[in-house]
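ARCHIVE CARD
CATEGORY: sequence design from structure
SOURCE FIELD: tokenized fold
FIELD CONTENT:
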């Protein structure tokens, strides 16, 4: 009887602990927010933080004050500390924020209220990794249904919600995709688009290169050029020394080894004229002009 009683108590304790754990995981999603001004072009800096056992999430971005429902400009700019309650409504759900504001800055706590219809729409689009935390992240980074559908229409189909979030974090817009496609670039996978944005490859950069005769330049080459600082201005400077339409890989090699316009002038002043790019690189590697 004693063994049975102990086993029964243990079962109750186990059930209570499981119930508590479920309550913890299915409870409301909450965290902290801060806003810092001033208002610039109708934008303020919003930071969202959420801490959970074993992990934490932090996001900071520019948000239009028109998205802060329930908050007025006067309240935002007031020199007197005041209670602030406002909502940020996204497709994935609503962030309900409460705290204090003074002189354009403030902070407090938030609660996230998910939109059930969003998850249904996402499943219809082929996304199934939709935990409560993931939906919260999708809301925080404003991954709207319109954004996803516009990407689909442009031929870009990110295979996971995490890739959608990464694309939004790095500002991969449908306008950027369409501009790159209009320039003839077709290798526009989600990861490649993110890499291009991280390293500052713009449509303007692509247009400039094509106007200089680099019609077959690839997105990978443009990323490499950005990483090593091969700008269109640098190309023009190198061409001014008589190097007609230098290949991109040669330009990158010049940057890697420090072949600058000043170095070329120095070499020419020492009598090293009419050298190829490879010869200039060898001069630099062996320190002949040092």
């Amino acid at each position: 009887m004693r063994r049975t009683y102990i086993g029964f108590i243990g079962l109750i304790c186990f059930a209570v602990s499981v119930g508590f754990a479920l309550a913890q995981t299915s409870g409301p999603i909450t965290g902290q927010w801060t806003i810092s001004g001033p208002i610039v072009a109708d934008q303020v800096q919003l930071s969202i933080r959420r801490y959970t056992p074993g992990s934490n999430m932090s996001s900071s971005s520019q948000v239009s004050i028109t998205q802060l429902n329930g908050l007025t400009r006067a309240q935002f700019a007031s020199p007197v500390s005041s209670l602030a309650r406002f909502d940020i409504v996204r497709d994935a759900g609503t962030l309900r924020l409460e705290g204090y504001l003074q002189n354009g800055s403030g902070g407090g706590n938030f609660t996230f209220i998910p939109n059930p219809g969003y998850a249904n729409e996402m499943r219809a689009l082929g996304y199934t990794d939709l935990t409560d935390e993931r939906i919260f992240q999708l809301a925080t980074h404003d991954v709207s249904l319109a954004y996803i559908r516009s990407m689909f229409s442009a031929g870009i189909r990110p295979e996971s919600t995490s890739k959608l979030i990464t694309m939004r974090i790095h500002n991969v817009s449908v306008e950027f995709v369409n501009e790159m496609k209009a320039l003839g670039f077709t290798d526009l996978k989600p990861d490649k688009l993110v890499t291009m944005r991280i390293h500052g490859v713009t449509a303007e950069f692509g247009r400039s290169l094509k106007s200089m005769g680099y019609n077959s330049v690839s997105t990978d080459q443009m990323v490499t050029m950005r990483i090593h600082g091969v700008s269109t201005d640098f190309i023009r400077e190198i061409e001014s020394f008589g190097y007609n339409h230098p290949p991109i890989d040669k330009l990158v090699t010049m940057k890697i080894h420090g072949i600058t316009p000043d170095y070329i002038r120095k070499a020419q002043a020492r009598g090293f004229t009419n050298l190829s790019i490879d010869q200039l690189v060898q001069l630099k590697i062996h320190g002949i002009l040092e």
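CARD ANNOTATION: The longest strand covers residues 29-40. The chain has 14 helices and six strands.
SHELF: design records, drawer C
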